[in-house]
Amino acid sequence: MPVVLVAAWWVATAGSTDFFWPPLSTILGTFDDTWFHGRITGDVLPSLGRLAAGYLLALALGVGLGVAIGSVRVLRALLEPVLEFFRAIPSPVLVPILMLFAGIGNGMKILVIVSGCVWPVLLNTVEGVRALDEVLRDTARCYRMRPHSRLVHLVLRGASPQITAGARQALSIGIILMVISEMFAASNGVGFTIIQFQRGFSIPQMWSGIILLGLIGIALSAAFHVVETRVLRWYTGLRRAQREG
């Protein structure tokens, strides 16, 4: 399917004289000079670093709070209205507010990513913990499993399908917020560079940046799939055994 889309784009823009819609061949011709001569270390790697920091922090917060809220009914009843309120606020709206408190450095950009990525992880973790089999919970109590063993082998492993689903959603949100955060008072990054190209009417270079973001998304999705396959190997094996049985 991606090959078909690229071929359609190539054919649709071949011979185009529109300044804002240049031929794909022209865009690809600028790709190497635009991104592989200084901007990998100056823009791409800083963006990926901020994305990694924000995403991993959101995972830690989402899973930690999700396990606590999903396990304690009273805590869930108290916090659910608050969570629904903050979840409904679009993360880009928080950028000006976060700039006031965190400045315009990397901290603000990481907080923007965290503010959007934490919700799918948190809510999916809560639902995963709530959906744990009561028989398994009772079995763990009967065998007097230690709290740490119960957390790792029962709660986290049992909720891991929902946690990974939330983590996959958070990854795509994180890429979007990475770009948005770099469009506000930034001095480097992929989003900052794309905006600079747009303001300077360097349209082929601007489109090459958009293509780069797509390639980054594909690469991160493939890496996530590898990790997901290993983490959920027990789950996929169980589902396969149930279908065959």
TrEMBL record:
- Where is it localised? Cell membrane
The record, for SUPFAM superfamilies, names: MetI-like (SSF161098)
Coiled-coil annotated residue ranges, if any: none
Q: Does the keyword Cell membrane apply?
A: yes
- Asked whether the UniProt record includes Zinc-finger among its keywords, one would answer no
Q: Which residues cross the membrane?
A: 52-72, 93-122, 170-195, 207-227
Q: Name one Pfam family in it.
A: BPD_transp_1
- Which PROSITE patterns did the record assign? ABC_TM1
Domain ABC transmembrane type-1, first and last residues per copy: 44-228
Q: Which keywords does this Swiss-Prot/TrEMBL entry list?
A: Cell membrane, Membrane, Transmembrane, Transmembrane helix, Transport
Membrane protein topology class: Multi-pass membrane protein
- PANTHER family, sorted: ABC TRANSPORTER PERMEASE PROTEIN MJ0413-RELATED, ALKANE SULFONATE ABC TRANSPORTER-RELATED, MEMBRANE SUBUNIT
- For this entry, the protein name equals ABC transporter permease subunit
